[in-house]
């Protein structure tokens, strides 16, 4: 006997909550984070009833579930109250600013990216909790508006070039010391390891004899 086709309840109860640019900061990753934040406060069985559609959270439930629908709608509305202030987590920062993980770590360490504190969560499938820095959305918005990542990248390039120049100079001085080149003195009596240019030709002319 053929199995009876499953009947899908019509999701006639619908409500949506548009997400403002101040909340999402133009990031799809941030939008997904807001969705997960709202779902986390809902009963597990009802979480899939909420999704993101064209920049808004949308709740869909079947006819006959009016009481549950209103309860879920109240939870979502409460979650979204003041959502613009929800701390920005690392993967959202990287998406909003279009930066790499290495850049985020470097700029956080040297203070260019300001931490707003830390957050600890227990991830499914992991024995230990994970602690990470979070960021104030208004600080991240300011960094984005001023295009600071471009400026910081240029600063990093200049710093790297300067470090390479210093390292090359140090390596050259080290090699000069190992080769046993004579130590010289400047007219003021200061010691220097710079080689004497043209010394061999000068000696061959017999001017020192």
UniProtKB/TrEMBL annotation:
- Composition bias type Basic and acidic residues, residue spans: 156-165, 178-191
Protein name, UniProt field: ASCH domain-containing protein
Residue ranges, compositional bias (Basic residues): 166-176
Q: Where is this region: Disordered?
A: 156-197
Question: What is the phylogenetic placement of the source species in the record?
Answer: Bacteria, Pseudomonadati, Pseudomonadota, Alphaproteobacteria, Hyphomicrobiales
């Amino acid at each position: 006997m053929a199995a009876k086709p499953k009947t899908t309840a019509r999701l006639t109860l619908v409500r949506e909550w548009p997400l403002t640019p101040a909340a999402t900061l133009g990031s799809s990753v941030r939008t997904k984070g807001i969705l997960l934040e709202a779902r986390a406060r809902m009963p597990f069985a009802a979480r899939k009833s909420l999704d993101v559609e064209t920049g808004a959270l949308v709740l869909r439930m079947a006819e006959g579930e009016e009481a549950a629908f209103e309860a879920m709608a109240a939870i979502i509305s409460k979650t979204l109250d003041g959502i613009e202030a929800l701390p920005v987590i690392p993967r959202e920062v990287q998406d909003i600013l279009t930066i790499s993980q290495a850049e985020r770590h470097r700029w956080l360490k040297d203070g260019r990216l300001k931490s707003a504190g830390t957050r600890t969560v227990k991830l499914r499938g992991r024995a230990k909790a994970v602690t990470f820095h979070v960021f104030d959305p208004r600080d991240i918005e300011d960094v984005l508006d001023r295009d600071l990542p471009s400026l910081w990248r240029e600063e990093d390039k200049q710093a790297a070039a300067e470090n390479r120049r210093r390292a090359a100079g140090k390596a050259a001085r080290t090699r000069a010391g190992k080769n046993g080149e004579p130590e010289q003195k400047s007219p003021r009596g200061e010691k220097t390891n710079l080689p004497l240019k043209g010394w061999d030709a000068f000696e061959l002319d017999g001017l020192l004899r």
